Amino acid sequence: MGEPKIVVVDYHKGNLSSVVRGLARAGAAACTSDDPEQIRGADGLVIPGVGAFYDAIAFMRQSGEADAVLDAVAAGTPLLGICLGLQLFFERGDEGAPADDDASEQAGSPWVDGLGIMRGSCTRLESSRLKVPHVGWDQVHMTPAGAADPLLAGFAEGANMYFTHSYAVAGDADAADVLARTHYTRSFPCIVRHGSVWGCQFHPEKSSALGQRILKNFVSIVEGAGR
Fold first, then answer.
1. pLDDT > 70: what percent of the chain?
2. Is the dihedral of CA 148, 83, 141, 176 positive or negative?
3. Cα 42 to Cα 20: distance, rounded to the nearest angstrom
4. C-alpha–C-alpha distance, residues 91 and 103, integer Å
5. Phi, psi at residue 150, to the nearest 5°?
6. What is the pLDDT of residue 150?
7. Cα(155)–Cα(123) distance, rounded to whole angstroms?
8. Rounded to an integer, what distance in angstroms lies between the CA atom of residue 196 and that of residue 80?
9. Lowest CB count within 10 Å: 21, 57, 69, 96, which one?
């Protein structure tokens, strides 16, 4: 195949150009789209990290993007989630739910359903000592599965990547899906994988050369899937 066509899913919450530029530098024909048919037809997909869980998933459901993403994943299309994009893969989150939402209440906080690709919840980082949001460079510690994963080829254990978030995957994630963890207020999964779906809690497009390496590895995965 020529340059793989990677669609950055646009859920109308922010500027996606740095992700598109990073993918283009990594050798992909990258564009943004909110068209479900373009999403279904892409060689690879990226769900970027902008906005709040509730707003993003509500727009994706209403626009048909959520169904299109799930159809593409079912067909084996490689998908990368960044920051909030990773969080949306999970069963539920509690960020931004309106007080009068019909979402089920659990432990006093309203949950919003995510895409349900991976088991687990996304909850706020809590600390009386450390600043939240968690903003800046922090270490990524790979699991044995992560060290062997194609997304992390050439990635150094303990490497620093750029984070900016207040919510993270909770302790109920499936250990088999966790490729790496970061320790800040608690130990949380910062890279996950389930089948052809990968996610990074940090921003590879803002994490200099090593972040670019991850985008390049993802483009290679998409090329391999298209053969």
1. 94
2. negative
3. 14
4. 13
5. -60, -25
6. 98
7. 27
8. 9
9. 21
For 166-181, write each residue's pLDDT tens digit.
999 999 999 999 999 9
Whether 205 contacts 22, CB under 8 Å:
yes
Residue with tokens 């990594």: 26
CB-hemisphere CA count at 13 Å for 16? 24
196 in Cβ contact with 77 (< 8 Å): yes
One-character DSSP codes across 77-129: --EEEETHHHHTTEEEE-SS--TT--SPEETTEE-EE---SEEEEEEE---SS
pTM beyond 0.90: the answer is yes
- Catalytic center residues: 83, 203, 205
For 73, 74, 201, the CA distances from 117, given in Å and listed in that order, are 9, 10, 16
**For residue range 88-106, what is the model confidence (pLDDT) as tens digits?**
999 999 998 776 545 444 4
Number of C-beta neighbours around residue 202 at 10 A: 29
Q: What one-letter code names the amino acid at 194? A: H
What distances in angstroms separate CA 174 from CA 83, 91, 112, 119, 178, one per listed residue? 18, 11, 19, 6, 7
CA nearest 145: which of 121, 174, 117, 165?
Answer: 174
